[in-house]
Amino acid sequence: MKNALVTGGSGGIGKAVCLQLARSSFHVLIHYNSNKKSADEVLSLIESEGGKGETIRFDVSSKKAIESALGKWKNDNNDNHISVLVNNAGISKDNLMIWMEEGEWNSVINTNLNGFFHVTKSLLKDMIINKWGRIINIVSLSGLKGLPGQTNYSAAKAGIIGASKALAQEVGKKKITVNAIAPGYIKTEMIKNLDEKQLKTLIPVNRFGNTEEVAHLVDFLAGDNSSYITGEVININGGLYT
Amino acid sequence: MSLEEVKEKVNAFLIDEFELEEDQLIPNALIKDDLDIESLDFVDIAVIIEREFGVKVTSEYIEKIIVLQDLYDFIVEHSNK
Asked: What ipTM score was computed for the predicted complex, to two decimals?
């Protein structure tokens, strides 16, 4: 049974990804930082469907916390390693750049971009040694198109897109693929205050997306059937931006 | 550990892992150009060296390993410390 780590797995897209990967027979590590209750609920749901998983806590903005938590997991699971990584954890702190505080910029870059770096680096060696791996980075339309009020978030996500393309070339020979998924408007807490009725007129399929739709794409990229796809950014936005 | 012991183990690993022929493994063979071993392949090599010889390889040393003899010498030097 392969192990899959989903950062930010306790809610929204992360939760749907955890459930879907468990249905595809992965042992899922449901990462959370502060919301233990939600992570436990995701685990209960997985187990109620006959799947396997566990929760794991660390702060993705802290290199030390990442190395400590993943190092402990490795020690506790001697003959095992994590072969699928879904970098999904992230935060947004929207503000027009003219009003943006340095702290708002730094915390978004640190959690989203530096978090991607430290978590991925911690798991990469095992993937290289075992000559198989899947790294799936959840980015955003914001990282491709840029969205006003999100210079920090757009920069972080665009950074992950660039890093994904570079890393894909570094590790392709070792049968490790690295791809990014760029969701548009997906029904999650992050966009709960947006007016779907108004915004859907801009979306060719005329609706917001569901977390399960993103999860199915992650599931495909996590499997063997996607082995010739790497370094890609796959949009899932109902045709909003192509 | 003697040079001969190191050579034997390293060569066996390189033949097995990188599908190299024994006659390619001459001491002056350039790791990158003659043996087609890329920097990322050093991850595998570093793991084997640590497991077989108890020697930790850091990126600082990897840069100094140009020919196969450098690799043997590095292991002999550090395994006997």
From this structure: 0.71
